[in-house]
Amino acid sequence: MKKLILNTLLVTLGMGFMAPVMAQDLQSKLETMAKNNAEGYLGPAVTAFGMGVNSGTFHTAKPHKMLGFDVTINVAATAITDAGKTYDYYIPPIDVNIPIDVNGTSYNVTLNLDDVYESDRTSSTLFGENTSNAITADENTASDAIYSSLASQTGYSEATLQSLIPQTTIANLLSDYVPTINTPKGYNLPAFPMVMPQVSIGLPMSIELTLRGFPETDLGGGMGKLSFVGFGGKIGLNQFIPIPNLVLPRIAVGYYMTTLNMADVITANNSIATLQVSKSIPFLTVYGGIGLESSSMEVNYDYQYTDLSTNQTSTQNVNFTLDGKNTFRTMVGVRLKLAIISINADYNIGEFNTFNLGLGLTLR
Q: What is the model's pTM?
């Protein structure tokens, strides 16, 4: 059971149904990425995580009576658009010095990497295909820059230099000094699945308190711990409206927030404020509402890279915060209640669209 819970939590980060070793795989990938590429790789995950975790917060606008409660397991699936599966890989504008021999004399030619790598730099995001794009130097662009530089240094014409330094020599030099970049692979996730257990209990004044998440779990392998917890609640507004509930639908306002921390490498914070409306007939409740939400993800890791200008291996701490595109959502759903068992399904429309299915036990 503990392993199942852990795997499910890792799914919520967009890593698929993985064991803890796959969490380490994600950390290893991040450690090979400069900040710009880590932002592109994880960017859609912030929004998708927010859509998933902020779904299923309610299945009726009617709060529980005093000490009434429900225990619900929500299963959400957020559809990932094509735009959320790729990003443009970032290549820093670093200068590389290439020594070239011309008639026994050595010259240095400086190339800017951002100028000479191929223009197609499409890379998978965390949700993208499990394939790597090999970005190589554009030989024509690099050759033109090399011959132009040497012409200004040697006094030879570019035509003469092309006869002295054939294209095969240029290709070999580029292979040595402008290596192929293999972009990171994604986890090939057409949808973002997650499971969110929650418990709600009724308090006085039509107030309902909700707790969400899982207990803290050890990732193993010295990686640290994974914690995932949330809380929130709502208050019924019908008590303030002097119209019988038989006429009006149930109306409530709620607020919910969650925090996930994975070994201090990734910390995700999400919140949503909702206006909830529902109307019930025996066994059946139709519900919906609107939500104002936010999501963010703080990422912290050590970037390990080779400085091509010095050929030295270095480590740099990278720490940044990404904000999701979660702002406004609409929700519509239906709940079937048979004795103490309830089944609900709702559709959430936002930056990404999410389908949520809930199963629970409800009293009072």
A: 0.84
